[in-house]
From TrEMBL:
Pfam families tied to this protein: Isochorismatase
Source species taxonomy: Bacteria, Pseudomonadati, Bacteroidota, Flavobacteriia, Flavobacteriales
Gene: pncA
Protein family (similarity comment): Belongs to the isochorismatase family.
Enzyme Commission code: 3.5.1.19
Protein name, entry field: nicotinamidase
Protein species of origin: Kaistella pullorum
NCBIfam families hit by this protein: PRK11609.1 (NF008623)
GO molecular function per UniProt: nicotinamidase activity
Length: 201
């Protein structure tokens, strides 16, 4: 069975000192590097949040405060600080992440009108990123997922992978949660377990 490692959004803005730093984010980088060293993956895919500066998920572009929720294209949208703006240092992969083994990069969130947490598609489920096509082309049946953040982009990437028919495993030690509310990370794990995601301790 062919397997892929999907490394979600290990970018400067989500790491220590970044615009939207995930607590403990830097701790996952050595773990992810070790996974790549010690395992034979048929494909290693990096996803990259890659927003235009006028992105509608940014509080600053809506005259809102970070943490508020608005309705965007008919679905709730949490208001984030500006992050992972195209061409910025914050959008780059963290320097400690070994990207030399990566076989493909998927950029997401490029449409200013809709956010894209999942590596597979935008939040409205209108536009695919091409990740599913890429994995299917390479006969991938099993995906292992790591990266940032557990309760947003990692969770939705895992849930979509299951929906698309992949055997889906999350590395618990390879992810961290934003935890806007303290229970968000825990709830994300429960939701994934209920939806056939295997969580590897």
């Amino acid at each position: 069975m062919k397997k892929a490692l999907i490394i979600v959004d290990v970018q400067n803005d989500f790491c220590e000192g970044g615009a939207l730093a995930v607590p403990g984010a830097n701790e996952v980088i050595p773990y992810i590097n070790l996974l790549m060293e010690e395992n034979e993956y048929d494909q290693i895919v990096l996803t990259q949040d890659f927003h235009p500066a006028n992105h509608k998920s940014f509080a600053s572009n809506n005259g809102r405060k970070v943490g508020e929720t608005i309705t965007l294209n008919g679905i709730p949208q949490f208001m984030w600080p500006d992050h992972c703006v195209q061409g910025s240092f914050g959008a780059e992969f963290h320097k400690d992440l070994n990207i030399s083994k990566a076989t493909h990069v998927i950029q997401k969130g490029k449409n200013s009108d809709v956010d894209s947490y999942s590596g597979f598609q935008d939040n409205n489920h209108f536009v695919k990123t091409g990740l599913d096509d890429y994995l299917k082309y390479h006969d991938i049946q099993l995906v292992e997922v790591v990266g940032l953040a557990l309760d947003y982009c990692v969770k939705f990437t895992c849930l979509d992978a299951v929906q698309l028919g992949y055997i889906t495993c999350l590395h618990f030690n390879g992810t961290r949660a934003v935890n806007v509310k303290p229970e968000n990370g825990r709830d994300a794990i429960y939701e994934m377990l209920q939806n056939s995601v295997t969580v590897l301790g």
